[in-house]
Specification:
Blueprint lengths: L1 E4 L17 H6 L3 E5 L10 H6 L3 E3 L1 H7 L2 E6 L3 H6 L5 E5 L6 H9 L3 E4 L15 H20 L7 E3 L2 E3 L3 E5 L3 H12 L3 E5 L5 H7 L3 E2 L20 H16 L3 E4 L14 H5 L6 E4 L17 E3 L5 E3 L9 H17 L2 E2 L2 E2 L6 H6 E4 L2 E2 L2 H10 L5
Parallel strand pairs: 1-2, 1-4, 2-3, 4-5, 5-6, 9-10, 9-12, 10-11, 12-13, 13-15
Antiparallel strand pairs: 6-18, 7-8, 14-15, 16-17, 18-19
Bound molecules: nicotinamide-adenine-dinucleotide.
Amino acid sequence: MKVGVARETAAGERRVALVPEALGKLAAAGLEILVETGAGAGSAIPDAAFAEAGARVVSTDALYAESDLILRVQKPSADETSRMRSGQAVIGFLQPLIDPTSAKALADRGVTAISLDAIPRTLSRAQTMDALSSQANVGGYKAVLIAANAYGRYFPLLTTAAGTAKPANVLILGIGVAGLQAIGTARRLGAVVKAYDVRPETREQAESLGAGFVKLKTAIDATGAGGYARELTAEERAAQQAELNEVIGGMDIVITTAQVPGRKPPVLVTADAVLAMKSGSVIVDMAASALGGNCELSRVGETIETDNGVTIIAPDNLPATMPAGASAFYARNISALLLGMVKDGALHLDFDDEVTKATVIAHGGAIVSEPVNKLLEQSSGGNA
Ligand code: NAD
């Protein structure tokens, strides 16, 4: 089977789905690797490095014409989808629950669409395929570096002949994969770190990394399905907000990572809370998207400075800002998923397998994922 690696075309995307180090295992499984020319450029991987690792570097036309399966990071654009043909397959972050229409377009062309973000994350066998975690990890790390860069003071306690610098007080809101990496990174930089989450089991995880857990007087346990949080009720939100505002006011840096799957991210840092922060404080909102963010004032993709001197940064694709490191992890994840679906050098989809069942969104000209079909029905008013 010929496996193509696409050059990403989404704005600001610098990652690539495979790195040269990942090719050996795929070749050993009988796969021939084609790489679209320039695919690794954003990650500082020249075409020659792919060629040396055994790949054939090809033009865009040849990639779409020859590949049986295409590996990518972001979902294909409308133009890329129109280049694909029936019987071909694609694997990437297709985000069918956010954009079911693009998944439907792939299905209509007869393309087998396999979405890496639909991995059953609690399945231990799927850990190596969990690109959501590997990329969240990169994001959590980078968010702290961005905050440190924007902050006009030191993170660590520093005693010098010119005086003593106090350590920065950092608050991490949301202690999932990104939040835990943010805690570790801020601690390694010497900051005093506090963290908060609505899932009580995160307390021990935060403390084991050296953060103090913010325990609110209003006890909230919002543990939801699959290790995720559920949405808070209006009463819980109000109680949480009043107490959190007090904590936020004393912080130099706030990094927010809180998400609730399939919903708008909860607002944890209100405009009032920002007003109460000291001039020079920095907020990095990792949850910001077109749907909004964890900070009421965030504008996705932008950095703003409020009248009271607080910098609010809302990056829209942090992993792409550390492309080589993020791609190396992503390549391992996508290779693990692919190898689990290859038999005798060809794609072999066993729908009794939990990973296959969850990740194959379109096959044989139809959407085969129940949740995606439901979404499509809803969006067409139940007439689909
Ligand atoms: P996420 O990106 O969905 O959310 C980030 C964090 O925000 C979560 O910890 C969540 O509890 C928190 N949050 C949501 N609403 C909040 C609110 N109102 N206030 C404060 N915090 C709030 O989560 P994620 O990082 O993708 O994963 C979350 C958890 O899923 C992990 O920590 C883990 O327990 C579980 N998980 C398990 C596996 C596995 O079993 N292999 C793999 C990945 C993740």
